[in-house]
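Illustration: Thiamine transport system permease ThiP.
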Amino acid sequence: MISLFSHPHFRPRHYIGGSAVIFFIVLLYTTSLSAVFSVGGNYSWEAFKQDDYLHQVIFFSFGQAFLSALLSVLIGALFGRAFFYQPFLGKPLIQRLLSLTFVLPALLAIFGLLGIYGTMGWLSQLMQWLGIDWKPTIYGLNGILIAHLFFNIPLAARVTQQALQAIPAEQHQLAAQLNIQGWQFFRLIEIPYLKNPLLPTFVLIFMLCFTSFTIVLSLGGGPQIAPWKSLFTKRFF
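Result:
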């Protein structure tokens, strides 16, 4: 820190803008948290420790975020390896379609999932046409996971593909000369390039899923819990 201030190229005015932004961010979060905690002024720490419902909500939030992030990274890594190694017809089109999830509104994606996996969705109608007495359940943990995977698998796949592209061609040639294939190639060549970007990607997806409000609110309960959802799903899905 001392060497930074004594550096000849150090200009204090260059840090004024960044310091101001950090200050306002800290101020915003501080005032928001103080407002939240001031609402429950009579809510003590002992009451929090004895509130089983709140414990279940917190555990469910962490659990669904962890599962969503883990499955997104694992499945996304498989997609990324397939896009990198396997040439197939329509690959550029599929990659462009997957990129749409980065700008697709969450509510629009939920409507699409309800249209497919809802009680009167395409999958349910297909089961009825085949004579199978089974209806998919989109509400609850499985619906939240499906929605989160829909949004986050393309992100993990893109990160995996970029990490594999960073492997030098010399390493591929050396691995071919030494007959390093399969699991050994993945362990010795790919993992060193994948572990650095995939861990931050896992943390990022976990944070996105943990703070996902629209998806959890829409798919976390069900028509039997929310009357307006029941009316909406019966009319449209």
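Reading the tokens back as a structure: The chain has twelve helices and no strands.
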